[in-house]
Design brief:
Layout: E1 3-7, H1 16-26, E2 28-32, E3 50-53, H2 60-68, E4 73-76, H3 86-92, E5 95-97, H4 104-118, H5 121-129, E6 147-151, H6 155-164, E7 170-174, E8 187-188, H7 191-197, E9 200-203, H8 217-221, E10 227-231, H9 240-248, E11 252-257, H10 279-286, E12 290-292, H11 301-320
Length: about 325
C-alpha cells in the first residue's frame, strides 16, 4: 500500500463501492466513515496522511485536530473549498485539494430551476398534490421573452450561457475574466447593468470575502420588479434577511435555490424529527414561489464517479510527491 486515506461523509449507497474500487487500483488503504468529521471522530484519521471530505465545515479547531493526528493533506470532493479554513491549514502546514467535476450537471439543474421558476412549478406541484387543478395564479412566462443575467462565467457559468442560447433569450454576463467563447452567446456588462436589465439572475461565482452577500438590500433595490433569482453556487452570496423581505414585498417574483446560508450540518442528513436551527430556510420553504433543494445540483452519476476517483488520485499524488493538478495553490 502506498498510503492511508481517511474518508469522511462516505455514502454507502453510491460512494463506498467506488472508493473501494479506486483504492485497490491505486494501492491505497482506506478508513471509511459515514459521518462528517468532528472532534469526536477525528481520531479515525490517526495514521492517515490524507483525509477526504465533502462540504462539511472544516474550521480552525478541526484543522488543528487533523494536524495533531498527523494529517498533511485535505481533499474535498467538491469544486468549492470555502468550507475549509485555508489560513488555519497553511498555518499547520496542511495542504488542500479540490475535485472539479464536469459542468453539465449543475448547468442542467440551473436551467431547470430557471424554467421551473418562471413557470411557477413549485405552486403547480403543491396544488396538484392536493388534486387542485385550477389555473388561477399559475400563469407563467416564456424564456424567449426574458433577459437572463449570468454572474460568473467559469466552466459552469459558461455552460449555462451556452445552454440558454438555445432558448432565444437575451443573455448578459459578468465576470472578472471574460471568455471569448462566452461572447458568442452573451454580452459582458458591468454588474449594475445586470441588476437593472435582467429578468432572471443566476449565480455561478465562488464565494469570496469580496462577494459575500452580493445580493443584498441595495442591489435588490436596483433590480426589476418581479426579478427571478437562481442560486446553485453558494448560499452566502445572498443576504437571507434582505432576500426574504424582497420576496414578501414582491420585489423578487420567484427564486430557485439549491444552496442557502448556514446549511452546514443540515444537508445530507435526515432531520424529520428535528427542530432546524435555520429559521431562514424554514421561511424560504414556506413561499409558493420559491423552490428550495438541498445542495444537490451537482449530484449525477458522472459527478460521483469523477470526484471519488479524482480525490483519491489527488491524495495518491500528494503522498508520492508527484505533480498534483487538484492541489489548491
Amino acid at each position: 500500500m502506498s498510503g492511508q486515506v481517511t474518508v469522511y461523509n462516505c455514502r454507502p449507497f453510491d460512494e463506498k463501492a467506488l472508493f473501494e474500487k479506486y483504492a485497490a487500483e491505486m494501492e491505497l488503504e482506506l478508513v471509511l466513515c459515514g459521518d462528517a468529521p468532528d472532534l469526536a471522530n477525528v481520531s479515525l484519521c490517526s495514521g492517515s496522511r490524507c483525509v477526504d471530505v465533502i462540504t462539511s465545515r472544516i474550521d480552525a479547531g478541526l484543522v488543528r485536530a487533523f494536524h495533531e493526528q498527523g494529517v498533511e493533506y485535505i481533499t474535498t470532493r467538491t469544486i468549492g473549498y470555502d468550507h475549509i479554513d485555508l489560513e488555519a491549514a497553511r498555518a499547520c502546514g496542511i495542504r488542500v485539494g479540490n475535485a472539479p467535476y464536469g459542468p453539465c450537471g449543475v448547468a442542467d439543474y440551473t436551467v431547470m430551476l430557471i424554467l421551473m421558476s418562471i413557470r411557477r412549478m413549485g405552486a403547480i406541484l403543491n396544488r396538484t398534490a392536493l388534486q387542485d387543478y385550477t389555473l388561477a395564479g399559475l400563469n407563467g412566462r416564456e424564456l424567449k421573452d426574458l433577459t437572463v443575467g449570468v454572474i460568473g462565467t467559469g466552466r459552469i457559468g459558461a455552460t449555462v450561457v451556452r445552454d440558454l442560447s438555445g432558448f432565444g433569450c437575451r443573455v448578459l454576463a459578468y465576470d472578472l475574466y471574460e471568455k471569448e467563447e462566452v461572447k458568442q452567446y452573451a454580452d459582458y456588462v458591468a454588474l449594475p447593468e445586470i441588476w437593472k436589465e435582467a429578468d432572471v439572475i443566476t449565480l455561478h461565482t465562488p464565494l469570496t470575502k469580496e462577494n459575500h452577500h452580493m445580493i443584498n438590500a441595495e442591489t435588490i433595490r436596483q433590480m426589476k420588479d418581479g426579478v427571478v433569482i437562481v442560486n446553485t453556487a453558494r448560499g452566502a452570496l445572498i443576504d437571507s434577511d434582505a432576500f426574504i423581505e424582497a420576496i414578501e414585498n414582491g420585489k423578487i417574483g420567484a427564486a430557485g435555490l439549491d444552496v442557502v446560508e448556514n446549511e452546514f450540518g443540515l444537508y445530507y442528513y435526515d432531520h424529520k424529527a428535528d427542530i432546524l436551527k435555520n429559521r431562514e430556510l424554514a421561511l424560504l420553504r414556506s413561499f409558493p414561489n420559491v423552490i428550495v433543494s438541498h445542495h444537490m445540483a451537482f449530484y449525477t452519476r458522472n459527478y460521483v464517479e469523477t470526484v471519488v476517483r479524482d480525490s483519491l488520485e489527488s491524495c495518491r499524488r500528494y503522498m508520492e510527491g508527484s505533480d498534483n493538478p487538484w492541489e489548491v495553490k
